Amino acid sequence: MNRKNTTLGEFIIENQASFQYSSGELSKLINAIRLAAKVVNHEVNKAGLVDIIGEAGDTNIQGEDQQKLDVLANEKFIQTLKNREIVCGIASEEEDDFISVNSNDNQNQNKYVVLIDPLDGSSNIDVNVSVGTIFSIYRRVTPIGTPVQLEDFLQPGRNQIAAGYVVYGTSTMLVYTTGDGVNGFTLNPALGTFYLSHPQMQFPETGRIYSLNEGNYVHFPQGVKNYIKYCQQEEGDRPYTSRYIGSLVSDFHRNMIKGGIYIYPKSSVAAEGKLRLLYECNPMAFIAEQANGKASNGYSSIMDVVPTALHQRVPFFCGSRKMVEKAEEFMAVQE
Ligand code: AHG
Ligand code: MN
Ligand code: MN
Ligand code: MN
Question: What note does UniProt attach to the cofactor annotation (predicted)?
């Protein structure tokens, strides 16, 4: 049932049959994300009013200066997920190692691990530009009731059972998939309720928007340089339009609605690019493929990469299928 203005709660109940595991567990998982998203949305919307913009004074394992909102969003999502008795482990961009939940309680029947980028696009916080949250959900692979292990988190993206993002923009939206298409819900802040506003979202097969940080041009591989020149040539429906917001979630969301490609390639200064496989690229790739888009490392599907480390980075090409395929052609011929 995909009628507009269904609430998120009604949607979960009406569509739980398509969820391959226990429907009650799915609704607990998505409801935990929904609650945390509302809490973080409240903080994001008042960021300029109270002392939560600016740097927290620490650096994370990525070597980034943590923003106060990075830390706050991280705490809110972890706390909400822990309290909902459905998750046995959490990994986050802002946590060096994964967090075991109820690991001492060997009755711990919780089956799911959640990986999060609690605040995506941190550089935009202080300048009032849209930011997001990204989440990725797996069933654990180690025996239920035992302490969660690193291998529960190092699963290929193909194993995800759900993934989604929140975009805190002109409106706040929760967009997610459980493997049965992609649906977008818009928050009515007056009621605190998410309503189905974008049923069955699909990437246009192609588009005219390319999103990447061209400031790094000199460092890019020749294939990426050649693709950028292709986008800028006057031929057919080109030159394309360049749009780069600085938040993966926002660029991805716009490209899914209008058509486009987002690229964060490897470079001479970032050997594997910047984006993290487990809590940025895999969840966005799951959504992209469910929306008839494509997500690769320039050569093969991101969701086939076998992870080796919690915070590993991969080059990322994602968006309208025909645009990603064209970019891959340029990557294949790196004269
Ligand atoms: P995060 O804020 O979670 O660290 O992620 C930021 C990512 C992504 O959201 C964005 O597209 C990209 O970094 C911007 O990187 P550059 O500033 O290097 O272009
Ligand atoms: Mn960061
Ligand atoms: Mn991010
Ligand atoms: Mn982040």
Answer: Binds 2 magnesium ions per subunit.
Region of poorest pLDDT, from 54-63, 126-135, 320-329? 54-63
pLDDT tens, residue by residue, 44-54: 887 666 666 67
φ, ψ of residue 186 in degrees (nearest 5): -105, 135
Longest CA pairwise span in the chain (Å): 64
Average pLDDT, integer, range 225-244: 98
Minimal-distance CA residue to ligand 1 atom 19: 213
Give the residue among 262, 324, 249, 264 at the shortest CA–CA distance from 293: 324
Please tell me the residue having the least CA distance from ligand 1 atom 17: 246
Q: What are phi and psi of 301, to 5 degrees?
A: -60, 135
Supply the DSSP symbol for 147: P
The arithmetic mean of pLDDT across residues 189-211, rounded, is 96
What does the domain layout of the chain look like in residue ranges?
8-198, 209-333
Assess contact for 319 and 203: CB atoms under 8 A: yes
Q: Give residues with Cβ within 8 angstroms of 282, minimum separation 6.
A: 136, 156, 157, 160, 163, 302, 303
Across the chain, mean pLDDT equals 92
Q: Give 131 Cα–ligand 2 centroid separation in angstroms.
A: 11
Report whether pLDDT(37) > 70. yes
Q: Which of 42-46, 179-183, 318-322 has the lowest average pLDDT?
A: 42-46
Can you give the pTM of this predicted structure? 0.95
3-class secondary-structure state, position 263:
strand
Instruction: Summarize the annotated binding site for substrate as residue ranges.
Output: 120-123, 213, 244, 274
How confident is the model at residue 167, as a pLDDT?
98
Burial 30-59 (b: 16+ CB within 10 A, else e): bbbbbbbbbbbbebbeebeeeebbeebeee
Q: Is 307 in the pocket of ligand 1 (CB under 6 A)?
A: no
- For the domain made up of 209-333, give the CATH fold: D-Maltodextrin-Binding Protein; domain 2 (3.40.190)
- Does residue 164 have its Cβ closer than 6 Å to ligand 1? no
**Strand, helix or coil for residue 252:** helix
